[in-house]
Amino acid sequence: MKKLMILIMAVFIGSCATASIENTQKAAAHYKLGVSYLNENNVNPAFIEFQKAYELNPENKEVLNAIGIIYLLKFEDFPKAIDFFQKAVSVDPDFAEAHNNLGVAYERSKMFNDAIISYNKALSNVLYRTPEMAYNNLGRIYYRLGKYDEAINAYKEALKRMTDFYPSYYGLALCYNAKGRYGDASLAITKAIEMDPLYKGSKSKAVNDLRQKKLNAKGEDEKDIADYLEILKY
Questions:
Q1: Would you say residue 76 has pLDDT above 60?
Q2: What architecture does CATH give domain 147-234?
Q3: What pLDDT is attached to residue 15?
Q4: Is the pLDDT of residue 10 over 70?
């Protein structure tokens, strides 16, 4: 009888392991399809595929991060985005991309101190493939908080990692302008426009585009655009 029970348990454990492997493989397939949809900006099909992957394998950090990204960037549901990014970093505390994304979700929720902590956690991973993103995000938060020197340092750190990372030049332009360093602000925005693939160095195109964007911008975004336009007059 004891041998029979051992055999039954072995069969049960083996079947569970097989089912787990099958679920993992199915989840990976749904995730891959979701990424394909998302790259084509087909948000709803992507979200459905990611949810299917999540149901099959709720411990997949990439799936958790992907769902968080959709809640953050597409649905603008910041609490749910925070929830999924937190789940992702609980699975892997060294998941730098999810820490950075969590920082963005906190920032959008005006939880600036939490955002700073998350960006720094992303940067603490020496294997983080895109540290310029987190440094740039730190620069933006410090700028919003009026900590212009800290913001300038963060933007410069981003540019050390990627010299043609033009968003950081836009950030530097705003910081220098706020500090009254108008010549430096002009040089920084000129560099940004040179590297920005949307403008390819054309200031007239940048001015026209910024004026158009300003019509629909609100709050901080509107002020940033107004400052860019002012800097471009220098």
A1: yes
A2: Alpha Horseshoe (1.25)
A3: 39
A4: no
* Dist CA 153 CA 7 (whole Å): 64
**Residue 58 phi, psi dihedral angles, 5° rounding:** -70, -5
**Of the candidate ranges 3-12, 140-149, 212-221, the one whose mean pLDDT is the lowest:** 3-12
Contact call for residues 192 and 166 (beta carbons, < 8 A) = yes
What distance in Å separates the CA atoms of residue 127 and residue 129, rounded to the nearest whole number?
Answer: 6
The pTM score is 0.88
On the 0-12 / 13-18 / 19+ scale of CB atoms within 10 A, 179 is middle
Determine the distance from the C-alpha atom of residue 210 to the mean position of all C-alpha atoms in its chain, rounded to a whole number: 23
Interacting residues of 175 by C-beta distance below 8 A, sequence separation 6+: 139, 143, 148, 151, 152, 155
Residue 185 is encoded by which pair of tokens? 């602000």
> Residue for token digits 């097989």?
18
Question: If DSSP codes are grouped into helix, strand and coil, which group holds residue 225?
Answer: helix
Domain positions in the chain: 147-234
**Euclidean distance between CA atoms 208 and 225, whole angstroms:** 11
Rounded Cα–Cα distance for residues 172 and 189 (Å)? 8
Handedness of CA 20, 21, 24, 26 (dihedral sign): negative
- What's the average model confidence in pLDDT over 133-150? 98
Residues 184-217 have pLDDT tens digits of 999 999 999 999 999 999 999 999 999 999 999 9
